[in-house]
Amino acid sequence: MDLSYLAQAIVNGIMMGGVYALIAIGLSLIWGVMEIVNFAHGDFLMVAAFFSYLFWAYLGFDPLVSMPFIVVLFFFIGFATQKFVMKRVMGAPTLFTITATFALSLILRYGFFIVFKPDYRVIRNPLLEGSFQLGPISIPTAKIVTLLVAIVTISLLFSFLKYTKKGKAIRATAQDREVATSLGVNVNNIFLLTWGLGIACVAVAGIMLSTFYYVFPLMGATFVLIAFASVALGGFGSVHGAVFGGMLIGIIQQLGGAFASPALKDVFVFIAFILVLMVKPMGFFGKY
Amino acid sequence: MQGVLDFSKTPIQKIALSLALVMLLILPLFLKNEPYLLHVFIMTFVYLSLGQAWNLIGGYAGQLSFANHIFFALGAYTSTMLLLRLDLTPWVGSLAGMIVAALVAYLLGFQLFHLKGHYFAVATIAFAEMMKIVFLNWRGVGAAYGLSLPLKMPSFYFLMWRSKMPYYYIFFAVAVFSTLLLYLIDRHKSGMYFRSIKQDEEGAEQKGIDTRYYKLLAFMLSAVICALVGTLYAQYVLYIDPRSTMDIMISTKSILIVLFGGLGNVLGPVLGAAILVPLGEFTRVKLGGGGQGWDYIIYGLFILMIILYQPKGIYDLLQRRPKYV
Amino acid sequence: MIYSRGAPNMSDRSLEVRALTKRFGGLTALDEVSLYVNRGEIVGLIGPNGSGKTTLFNCVTGLLKPNSGKIFFLGGIDLTGKSPHTIIQEGVSRTFQITRVFPSLTVIENMLVSISHKNESKIKSLYEGNSAHEAEKAKELLDFVGILELSDQPGGELSYGQQKLLELASSLMQNPKLILLDEPTAGVNPTLINKIVNRIQEANRRFRMTFFIIEHNMDVIMNISMRIYALATGKILVEGDPEKVRNCPEVLESYLGGD
After folding, report:
1. What whole-number distance in Å separates Cα of residue B260 and Cα of residue B315?
2. What's the CA gap between C215 and C115, in Å, rounded?
3. How near does any CA of chain B get to the CA of A104, in Å?
4. DSSP line for B262-302
5. Which residue of B has its CA nearest to C173?
6. In this structure, are residues C171 and C201 in contact, taking their beta carbons and an 8 Å threshold?
């Protein structure tokens, strides 16, 4: 086992970690503010990746170019999901909120499955082709750009949450809904905003994934579980935790795949997941 | 002792149920040349049994397990391995499968039951996916290639036939058995205790109920039913692999059936299975082009409708009709 | 430990709490609290919000594990740190500040769930129903508090006051040796308050039931208690008969001082 192999795995882990962090942030935000576990999160990712692919395949747009449009679109998709579906099940017993998002997941996933078949699709990306060599480590350009985009998006989100009025309102609502209401926050609008932001984040992840990963209807399944593991590690309800968790899961996954076998890389993720749930269910930064 | 179903109060229900049972018993004789219809009934019985199993742990005891399909798979794999390696009759193999499932349920429950609500659900999903990956890579049980059962039909000893009729009766028996088990529980103390745990676990503890024991009991019983169905399913389809037996959609479908029909009562899953399974099967055939996709979409849509508009399930909807008895 | 007053024979004590301490992070909710309740007594526990009263109950019934100290029951039984169901099975019943009935269980089922589960076979519960004797007793107790006619209603559909009565009845169901009542008259109209007080006193008289009661309603607690403990910021301020406690200036101060 030579060091460069190890280093490559870690670098890969950090790259993927950026994507996972983006996915996990949306999940954590929605959970933290509304106590809804969004099982359809991975499928929103898939839909965004498909949009990116379709914009490229039929309109010739590079994903980086179509990204702003798609992200804004997905903000409104998240908005609509809360307004027309999730609003009805908030406050219902856990089983109903879980199943509602599960049902959503089924509809999205198999809707795309029927239209696009299970085939894998790939974007041949002139803008982001090629890779860098850092000594013995090779880093595909697409992945580095993805990490940069992730960093920018996460920073923007954090700034929004920390400095803007709406952002503070979101944090207040996550902490204590009643107190927030008594302070004049319109929590219903906050819920809409949160879903919008959460889905917008996962859309960024999906678009960037489409630049170096396969796009196929069932991809939501893999990513949603990784997202859950990230959120569990980082702590449900903490967006900082989600970033930490996403990074850590990315590294664990790639290291596990490098040392054991690529087929088993997700087993390490699940083991970490279950260990965290058993030993430290609050995660490292969690509120609950 | 009050149960949700009080047959003595509704003779119409009693008659209707008896009629239905009789009809189901003689039905296969008319369907000798319709193997596909028999298959649909068989799958309905399969999911009714799995649904009742989930009803016990989820509908009654309130624990949202998404791992029940793993017990199903453990039953299938245990009996099949014993059949392949030791030529052991699946009648005994099924018992072995049930024991394995009960043990795994105990260990899993022991570790995870202190988790609440969402966390428990998500943990069971993680466990299930992990098991799937393990089995996909475990050469000793066939890995991704799966296991093919040796063809020994027709044989009662090896639980294998060419015709679908014997399978129909066996799965029918299991479905009736699981429904009766839930009926038994519903009408006696344990049913009440499970329901109290679901409604307020801490409150139940403060009434002196050993909630951990009861949750484990429900989980193990649930696992045992799933394992039995798994063994029989292997004997029916004659080929098992992780992709098909450890597909989380099996658990999801069982849950959807219970939700659709109505949680925490005995007839809910019956209604749910009777409607959703044939619907799923027929859409899959009619809209064949999409392959497996359409039935999932239909499930998804149905479930959203139920959750948004009739969360108590269809059974409750039927109960609201004025009674003429 | 100094016990200035009390039964010469320790086993006359239904409940004995010794130097009980409970901390939540930096906050000390209970600070070396010691108290006792004799068999057949009605003892009150008062104090401003946040003084630790419910925390004390939660420690006694096992919902919380104390950091240090001991809880003894009936003289010899050590309850400290035991699991809640074990403690309840020993013979302790308790109600909650905000009513906690099982909403989808009927009133009679709420009663039947409250039987004594000590030595109950769990496996047999799969196929055993409640005995006629248990059903009879449930009905008697429902009649005792006056809600027998609501037997088949789901618990969640009862009014707040009716739920309070149901809680009282179900706390008597297992024939406990000690009942902890957490604000039994909170949020209830005056007529009902009298009824509840009357039922508690009657249970004490007729069934020799021992009560330990948290209350905010001073009239009620002064009227009903034989002895009262006053708690403030996790410590016992004073202990004595209602007259003494009522006239104690520190008690009044603790309420006005606020937390």
Report:
1. 8
2. 26
3. 7
4. -TTSSSHHHHHHHHHHHHHHHHHHHTGGGTTHHHHHHHHHH
5. B207
6. no
Chain A partners of B58 at a C-beta cutoff of 8 Å?
Answer: 95
Per the structure, the complete domain to which residue B296 belongs is given by 7-23+40-319
Question: Is B126's Cβ below 8 Å from some Cβ in A?
Answer: yes
Contact A264 B133 (CB under 8 A): yes
User: Is the torsion defined by CA of A204, A205, A211, A216 positive or negative?
Assistant: negative
Q: Which residues of C touch B (CB under 8 A)?
A: 61-63, 83-85, 88-89, 94, 96, 100, 102-106, 108-109, 112-114, 116-118, 122-123, 125-130, 152, 170, 174
How close does chain B come to A264, measured CA to CA in Å? Answer: 7
From chain A, pick out residues whose CB is under 8 angstroms from the CB of B304.
85, 100, 103-104, 107
DSSP B322: P
User: pLDDT at position C7, please?
Assistant: 47
Q: What's the pLDDT tens digit per position in B105-128?
A: 999 999 888 887 778 888 898 889
As to burial, measured by CB atoms within 10 angstroms (0-12 exposed, 13-18 middle, 19+ buried), residue A242 is buried
- The answer to whether B300 contacts A113, with C-beta atoms less than 8 Å apart, is no
Torsion on CA atoms A63, A64, A70, A72, rounded to nearest 10: 180
Specify the pLDDT at position A276. Answer: 82
Number of domains in chain A: 1
- Segments of chain C with pLDDT less than 70: 1-11, 257-259
List the structure tokens of C213: 């009661």
Give the whole-number percent of chain B exceeding pLDDT 70: 92
ipTM, interface predicted TM-score of the complex = 0.91
How many domains, in total, are found in chain B?
1
Q: Determine, yes or no, domain membership for A161.
A: yes
Q: Is residue A117 part of a domain?
A: yes
Least confident interval from A71-75, B86-90, B296-300: B296-300
In terms of residue numbers, what domain contains A57? Answer: 3-279
Domain extents for chain C? 10-99+175-257
Say yes or no for a CB contact (<8 Å) between A263 and B136: yes
Q: What share of chain C is helix, strand, coil (3-state, %, to 5)?
A: 40, 25, 35
* Structural domain includes residue B2: no
pLDDT range class, residue B265, cuts 50, 70, 90: confident
In this prediction the pTM is 0.89
Instruction: Find the closest chain B residue to C156 by CA distance.
Output: B199
Residue B180 to chain A, least CA–CA distance (Å): 25
Which CATH number do you get for residue B48? Answer: 1.10.3470
- Averaged confidence pLDDT in chain A: 87
- Share above pLDDT 90 across residues of chain B, in percent, rounded to a whole number: 59
B33 assigned to some structural domain: no
Residue B32 lies in a domain: no
Neighbouring chains of C at 3+ CB pairs under 8 Å are: B
Per-residue model confidence (pLDDT) at position C4: 41
Contacts of B119 in chain A (CB under 8 A): 232, 236, 277, 281
Q: Among A75, A73, A41, which Cα is nearest to A55's? A: A73
pLDDT (tens digit per residue) in A173-222: 888 888 888 888 888 899 999 999 999 999 999 999 998 898 999 899 88
pLDDT band, very low/low/confident/very high, at A284 (cuts 50, 70, 90): low
- Separation in Å, CA of B21 to nearest CA in chain A: 31
Closest CA to B112 of B98, B124, B100: B124
**CA-based nearest distance B59→chain C, Å:** 13
Is B192's CB within 8 Å of C105's CB?
yes
Fold type of domain C10-99+175-257: Rossmann fold (3.40.50)
pLDDT of residue A142 exceeding 80: yes
